[in-house]
């Protein structure tokens, strides 16, 4: 079974940079990201419309590469979480987490007994279709799973201290669009209400030793959040990266009436 060395590096204090894959689920996407220097890729299922078959293919394309595949599931339900792990994800991001009980449930879905309630599968994608000791496989699966919970609503912010305290939560993420929207200041990322929520989330994560993560539209945004203690950044989305790069080139050529 494939290990997850990125999890250890992150928990030891390192930073990580990856791609937020949303639109272009092609065979070469993971390799392209890997060659660009990405350490991980986050495949979205919440808003992309991607189903588990497309995600399973993408996870397979990551095999043999020095890139760690993660999946953002559509919502906090067992079958989404367990299915993504069974397909080969080495970590899960769950959106819209609002309570400690939700966090405890999600943790249980990502861990085999006695640490959780994940159902068993062997000789499948998650263990690379291999043989071997069931006990050893389940222990490795428990240890390699990197669990990321998104706190992106006003309710989640109110409960973030309790959410971050739940054992086996590895990472607290923000969704800056949803967070600003649920706080009543959509897109106003300099608004005191929004910034206050971000600082509260950061304080809770730091108190309990959780990695802080966010999607990042560009390096300017990422550097601002790195100063707040964020260490994991998913650049994108892939569609935005293509569109913005293309727009810059077209604008450059059109300068001077070309």
Note the main attributes of this structure.
single chain; 258 residues; alpha/beta; globular
Order of helices and strands: HEHEHEHEHHEHHEHHEHEH
Oligomer status: single chain
Would you identify the regions where 5 or more consecutive residues have pLDDT less than 50? Answer: none
Reported for the largest beta sheet, the result is: 8 strands, parallel, barrel
How are the strands ordered across the major sheet? 1-2-3-4-5-6-7-8
Residue-averaged pLDDT: 96
| Gyration radius over CA | 18 Å
Distance between the termini: 55 Å
Number of helices, counting only DSSP H or I runs of 4 residues or more: 12
Which structural category fits the helices and strands?
alpha/beta
The total strand number stands at 8
Share of helix, binned: 40-55%
Q: Strand share of the residues?
A: 15-25%
Shape: globular
